[in-house]
Structure formats: C-alpha cells, structure tokens
Amino acid sequence: MKDLKIVKHFTTITKHHLMVRKYCFSVGLYRQGLLHDMSKYSLSEFLVGCRYFQGTRSPNNAERENRGYSSAWLHHKGRNKHHYEYWLDYSAEYRGEIVGMRMPEQYVVEMFFDRIAASKVYLASSYTDRSPLEYYEAGKIKFLHDDTKSILETLLNKLADEGEEAAIAYIKADVLKKK
C-alpha cells in the first residue's frame, strides 16, 4: 500500500508539473516551466505528500487537518514565487500589518497556470474552464495585492468565459508584453 501511494503521488505531482511546464512554455516562460514546483520532489515535501496522498486534493490539506498545520506547505510556499503567500510581508505604511506585495506578472501567470493544472489533475473528467475560477471564488484570499488580484481575476474570468486559447493569447499580448 505504501509503495502504491509513493507511485501515485509521484505520478500526480509529475503530471501537474508537466502540465504547468507546457502552459509556461506556450507564453515564453521557459525557466519557470522547467523549475515549477521542483520543491515537491524534496524530501520534506515529497515524503509528507506520500503519507497524506489521496488523489482528489492536495495532501497538504490532509496534513493540515491531521497536525493543525502543513509542514510541506510551509516549506513549499517559501520557495515558489508563483504562490501569493511567498509575497507576504510587513506593510511599509502600517507597523505590524502583514499585506500582500505586488507580484511580478510572470509569477501571476504561473499562478494562473498552476490553478488550471491543479484543477485538471484533481477534477479529471469533471474539469471545465470555469473550475479554476470557481475554486478561486470559493476561497477567502485576503492578502492579494490589488494589482495581482486584478490580473489573476482577469485571467480566470477570461478562461471561464472565452477558453484557454483566448486566455493564453491575452497573456502573450497584454500581460507579458513587456517581457
């Protein structure tokens, strides 16, 4: 049973990685595509992922429910710039307040692709182009910088309303035009 969980977890994270890589390559983010989520293969994340693997959601959620926190997530978010949590810092204006910093566009794009790939992997045949938007809307993200939020929501809505090709074309023409 343990060996099967190892294989299934490895397969899941690799499928996710390859999907994000394909999307990143499609808009010229080659380095990000190659390096996306590589920390998931580190022992501190991989072993936890195997232990809590379920196949229908992130093992980090199961670890969090069991332990009260996710050690794998704490490791992961501090090493991967496509997670908005990486960009949390103390506000320069308000002493002691933690706020979301503005994310560079290329990481917002990677975050968008990460959400598509995660939705496709976990939802499988029930995935639709609305799934990443629905997941986003169901969450309670409080710390997104206004600029980051605007870009992400524009991309999620474009995907939901017009499909992947239109969202990727928009990223190339408008979001990453300066890159």
Automatic annotation (TrEMBL):
Its domain of life reads: Bacteria
The name this protein carries in UniProt is Catalase
Q: Which organism is it from?
A: Anaerobium acetethylicum
